[in-house]
Design goal:
Layout (H helix, E strand, L loop, with lengths): L1 E5 L3 E10 L2 E9 L14 H6 L4 E6 L6 H15 L3 E6 L12 E6 L7 H8 L6 E4 L5 H12 L3 E6 L4 H9 L7 H11 E11 L5 E9 L2 H9 L5 H4 L11 H10 L5 H7 L3 H8 L4
Parallel strand pairs: 4-8, 4-9, 5-6, 5-7, 7-8
Antiparallel strand pairs: 1-2, 2-3, 9-10
Helix pairs in contact: 3-4, 6-7, 10-11
Length: about 280
C-alpha cells in the first residue's frame, strides 16, 4: 500500500496484492486540489471544530466514505486562517498540504516512521498545536492520542465506525472491563466531537456527504461517565443548537433541497422506517 504523484494530473493511492490469477493492483485517484469546507457544502460546525485548542475530534465511516477528503478540508481551513504547527501521521499520505498560515509536517508510516504510535509519541516532543492521526488502529495509539488531547493538543483521528455511539464503544472495547471506568473518564474529558460520515449519489450524478455529528456537551459527557453510551443516540436529534445532527436529518435536508430522491434517502438511511415516516410528514 502506498501513494505516488503525477505532477499536474493527480495523486494516486496504490495497493498491490497477489490473487488467484497472479499479481493484481488497485489504483485510486486523489485530486491534487484540496476542496474547501464551503466547496464540500459542510455545515458551519466543521469550522467551529477547527477552532478548538485541545481535545480529540474523530471523523469516522467505512472505507471510501470521504473521511480523508473531509479531514483535508479541515486542515486546509486551519492552514488558511490560523498560525498553527500541524503534524500529520498517515498511511499513506493522500492529500499533500503546502504550508501557508500554518506550518504543516506530513509523515508516512513505513517511510518516515515504523508505526503510528511511534510517530505519535515522537510528535509530542516536536511542539505541535495539532496532530492528525490517519487511523487509530490499536489501544497504544488510542492511549497516546488521549494523552496528547489531555496535554493541550488538538488531535484529529479516524476510525472505521458508522455512528458516534459505535465509535465511543469501539474505543472503550479496546480495554478490559476493569480498565473501562478510568477510560470512560479519559474519553469524557478528552473528546470534542465525533463526525460519522457516508457518501451518497445525488440527482445530478455527483456525490454528497451525509453526517451524524455528535458534540461532547455536558449531557453527552455524563452519559459516557455513567456507561450509558447508547443513550447518546436519542440525544443527538434534540441538540441541533449545539451543531449536532443525525444521518436522517441530514438526508431529509438533502431531499428538501432536491439533491436526492426518496429512494436514495431510504436506501442510505440507518433507520429507514423512521426516514419513511419523516418523508411522509409523520415525524
Amino acid at each position: 500500500d502506498g501513494a505516488t504523484q503525477y505532477e499536474g494530473v493527480a495523486r494516486v493511492r496504490i495497493n498491490i496484492f497477489v490473487a488467484l490469477n497472479g499479481p493484481a493492483m488497485v489504483m485510486r485517484l486523489i485530486p491534487l486540489k484540496i476542496l474547501t469546507l464551503d466547496e464540500l457544502n459542510l455545515p458551519l460546525v466543521f469550522q467551529d471544530l477547527c477552532h478548538y485548542h485541545k481535545g480529540l475530534i474523530l471523523v469516522t465511516g467505512p472505507t471510501g466514505s470521504g473521511k480523508s477528503t473531509t479531514l483535508a478540508a479541515m486542515v486546509d481551513y486551519i492552514n488558511t486562517h490560523m498560525p498553527k504547527h500541524i503534524i500529520s501521521i498517515e498511511d499513506p499520505i493522500e492529500f499533500v498540504h503546502k504550508s501557508r498560515k500554518a506550518m504543516i509536517r506530513q509523515r508516512e508510516v513505513g517511510i518516515h516512521t515504523q508505526k503510528f504510535d511511534n510517530a505519535l509519541k515522537a510528535s509530542l516532543r516536536e511542539d505541535p498545536d495539532i496532530i492528525l492521526i490517519g487511523e487509530m488502529r490499536d489501544r497504544e495509539t488510542v492511549n497516546t492520542a488521549l494523552k496528547a488531547a489531555q496535554t493541550g493538543h488538538l488531535v484529529f483521528g479516524t476510525l472505521h465506525t458508522n455512528s458516534a455511539v459505535k465509535t465511543i464503544e469501539r474505543i472503550l472495547n479496546l480495554y478490559n472491563p476493569e480498565e473501562q471506568g478510568p477510560m470512560r473518564m479519559q474519553v469524557a474529558e478528552s473528546l470534542v466531537g465525533v463526525v460519522a460520515q457516508s457518501l451518497i449519489r445525488t440527482t445530478d450524478g455527483k456525490r454528497a456527504a451525509i453526517h451524524e455529528i455528535m458534540i461532547n456537551t455536558d449531557a453527552v459527557k455524563d452519559y459516557i461517565l455513567r456507561g450509558d453510551v447508547e443513550e447518546i443516540e436519542a440525544l443527538i436529534p434534540e441538540c441541533t443548537y449545539d451543531g449536532m445532527v443525525t444521518m436522517n436529518q441530514c438526508l431529509y435536508r438533502l431531499y428538501e433541497e432536491g439533491r436526492i430522491d426518496e429512494e436514495t434517502a431510504l436506501e442510505a438511511s440507518p433507520k429507514p422506517n423512521e426516514m419513511a415516516q419523516t418523508l411522509r410528514g409523520r415525524i
